[in-house]
Write a structure and sequence with these properties.
The complex is a heterodimer of chains A (159) and B (532). With 159 residues, chain A is an all-alpha fold. Chain A contains 7 helices and 2 strands. In chain A, helix 4 packs across helix 6 and helix 6 packs across helix 7. The chains are: A mainly alpha (159), B alpha+beta (532).
């Protein structure tokens, strides 16, 4: 929680000055990027920008893995266990099959939503190739966007 | 009622006659028979008639579905036994208060630092007036409810890409959109453009209605003036004494509203699920789960992780890890089983049911959703912006900011729902962050709407449902195709096992769906048991 604490310290310093601003004035400051906005951009926006709308905007396997797959399978790809489990993707023999991996991304698997439906063919290929060559996996044979496209046409979610 | 005039009395005319001659309740009964008034699937407290002769039922999961089943089956004379993974009742019915500690999947632990009396509901947070079953249980179990404010005309609609990113009052967008549309429609009507579609008599009434509902002036225009101010409010409100005359504001033009896309936010106030009156329990949604659990004292075994369900002709055996005793595996053997585990969990547990039911269990993805609770040193939304309850909708990744419906106008600190995403990329992106990073981002985004965030923020928590250990997701996210292929199979009694929960309802993600599903399941199960 160090992050929250740094916000708190900064907040206390600015509190007196900000209170004097009426809502409108404070607004003008933010809109103009005069005071608060650059401070925030500087101190807070350490991560990549978040997606707008209903499709992932992350590009490249690493970025997609870290912002999508890691939500459940965890940043180290080792999965997690609660009342049931998110399987590890690290050192996972199932990843030998690109067909399996594409089907999971495009159709989902049990409780897992078909996250590939919110990605382009290129993005799906990138993240599949990334996970098959990282986290103790080293499978040969990269998937192409064209192959993803073909798999998508075969998938349940095909239009 | 179309003009396809029938020779007989029109239905509406018939109703007017009934209403006029014998009064409202007769009209209502008559309407119900004609299918006008919607029929509630909830028929009041259930009565399970007949002696179960000491039959035993194990209920898996102590959420609202499981506890509903347990309470009613116990009342009917069954021996009941409830297994619950968590160390508390309620499941997704859950409130986080100061002092609570929550560890998500991956191990990140948050210590909620809210002041006394402040809370956030990470799961369900509002109850529609037409969710009759949960309202009835709240009444019967003594859960005090208060209004949940869904629509506050003075909250905001916001888009980073519209009006230079400055949030707009809901009343302005709503009144100006309705006024603008009414003006256009009135113009078309008066030009004769609708002559083929609307009869001459109805045109007169239509114009009258447009003027009234669209706040048009005497010339059917929507302009700055007394009529529009009566809907949108004033640039300067009427006062008392000297210099008290109100000043009318200038409406936002139709082009600006349309291109801003802010009208999209208005749908949140039109949907049946979100219409007033909505409710919340005093003190947090978790009060409902706590009240349910009090009905079955010592009936719930906590810290029990189900790892297998096996049935044969004579009974059901449930294996579970006793998490309180270091994970020691135990077994319970009973006659019947009501399983309310989320399908995200159940789909990973060995269970010998029919292939069709197993396919149904495996067919439902679970939505990703994230909520944020942010405590501020003062209720600036009330003090500075005169927003008392309600929800601001935005196209920022946080999607919405909900202001507390309690403690209104009393000053002091407050906790906002600082964001609530449901499905979509942002839910995954927030989930992938550490809890601290999520909160930091929510503060950063919220400050674009309320600059006071920067000076008043104190502490916060976030719950990303895909990392919630007891559900691995928010709720069953049925597609139409999956529902038509699998829903009926999911709801069957399979040997000695029946499933229940929001996932086995047509009201997914709502507590009402969980309760109605449980009531339906146990009534069918009871009937089978009594008959056997």
């Amino acid at each position: 929680m160090t992050v929250s604490i740094s916000i708190r310290l900064r907040s206390r310093r600015n509190r007196h000055a900000m209170r004097k601003c009426s809502e409108r004035v404070a607004w003008a400051l933010v809109a103009a990027g005069a005071v608060a906005a650059p401070v925030l951009a500087d101190e807070l926006s350490s991560k990549t920008a978040m997606s707008r709308g209903w499709e992932f905007t992350e590009q490249g396997g690493a970025d997609l893995f870290n912002n999508v797959c890691a939500a459940c399978h965890q940043p180290d790809a080792k999965g997690a266990i609660g009342a049931a489990a998110y399987p590890p993707l690290a050192a996972d023999t199932k990843l030998a099959s690109t067909d399996f991996l594409l089907a999971v991304l495009l159709d989902g698997l049990r409780g897992m939503p078909p996250v590939g439906s919110m990605m382009s063919d290129e993005q799906v290929a990138d993240v599949v190739n990334y996970v098959r060559t990282h986290f103790g996996n080293s499978y040969a044979g990269a998937v192409s966007a064209a192959e993803v496209s073909a798999a998508r046409r075969r998938s349940k979610s095909a239009p | 009622m179309s003009d396809g005039a029938t020779p007989s009395l029109s239905r509406r005319r018939l109703l007017e006659l009934v209403g006029a001659s014998v009064g409202g309740s007769a009209t209502y009964q008559f309407m119900t028979r004609l299918g006008f008034a919607s029929e509630s699937p909830y028929r009041g407290a259930i009565k399970l008639e007949g002696d179960p002769k000491g039959a035993s039922v194990i209920i898996l999961g102590a959420g609202l579905a499981g506890m509903t089943a347990a309470i009613e089956l116990k009342r009917a004379g069954y021996k009941i036994n409830v297994l619950e993974y968590n160390l508390r009742p309620g499941g997704r019915n859950w409130t986080l208060r100061g002092g609570d500690v929550y560890t998500e999947l991956g191990g990140a632990t948050q210590h909620c630092e809210f002041d006394a009396g402040l809370y956030i509901n990470p799961g369900p947070w509002r109850i529609p007036y037409h969710h009759h079953a949960i309202l009835d249980y709240c009444r019967r179990f003594g859960v005090t409810l208060e209004s949940f404010i869904q629509l506050n005309h003075n909250a905001f609609l916001h888009s980073a890409a519209a009006f230079d990113g400055k949030p707009q009052r809901i009343r302005d967008i709503k009144a100006d959109f309705e006024g603008g549309v009414s003006e256009l429609l009135a113009k078309a009507t008066r030009k004769g453009a609708l002559d083929e579609a609307v009869s001459k008599e109805d045109r007169e009434i239509l114009l009258e209605a447009l003027r009234s509902l669209g706040a048009l002036d005497n010339d059917f225009r929507y302009r700055a003036g007394d009529a529009s101010s009566a809907h949108r409010g004033y640039a300067k409100d009427p006062g008392g004494g000297v210099d008290a005359e109100p000043v009318n504001g200038e409406p936002i033009g139709m082009h600006d509203i349309l291109t801003s896309r802010l009208w999209r936010g208005l749908q949140n106030f039109l949907n049946y699920d979100f219409q007033t009156t909505m409710f919340q329990p005093v003190g947090g949604m978790g009060r409902i789960g706590e009240a349910f659990a009090r009905q079955i004292p010592n009936g719930i075994r906590y810290g029990a992780k189900v790892i297998g369900v096996t049935q044969n002709e004579t009974g059901v055996t449930v294996a579970f890890e006793d998490l309180v005793a270091g994970g020691a595996v135990q077994e319970v053997r009973v006659d019947w089983c009501v399983c309310t585990l989320p399908l995200s969990i159940l789909s990973q547990i060995p269970i010998n049911v029919s292939a069709r039911m197993k396919a149904a269990i495996d067919a439902v993805p679970y939505a990703s959703a994230v909520k944020f609770g942010l405590q501020f040193s003062r209720r600036f939304w009330e003090e500075d912006e005169h927003i008392f309850g309600g929800i601001t909708y935005t196209d920022l990744p946080i999607r919405q900011i909900s202001y507390p419906s309690t403690g209104l106008n009393a000053g002091g600190k407050g906790v906002l729902l600082g964001g609530y995403t449901f499905d979509g990329p942002n839910s995954y992106e927030f989930t992938a962050m550490s809890p601290a990073e999520r909160v930091r981002r929510a503060v950063e985004f919220g400050a674009q709407i309320h600059p006071q965030y920067l000076t008043e923020f104190e502490n916060g928590v976030s719950v990303a449902w895909s990392r919630v250990p007891f559900t691995l997701g928010c709720a069953g996210d049925w597609s139409d195709e999956a529902r038509s292929a699998h829903y009926n199979d999911l709801c069957q009694i399979d040997g000695r096992i029946v499933l229940a929960g929001e996932h086995a309802s047509y009201i997914p993600a709502w507590q009402e769906g969980a309760i109605l599903s449980a009531l339906d399941a146990i009534q069918r199960l009871h009937k089978r048991i009594i008959a056997s």
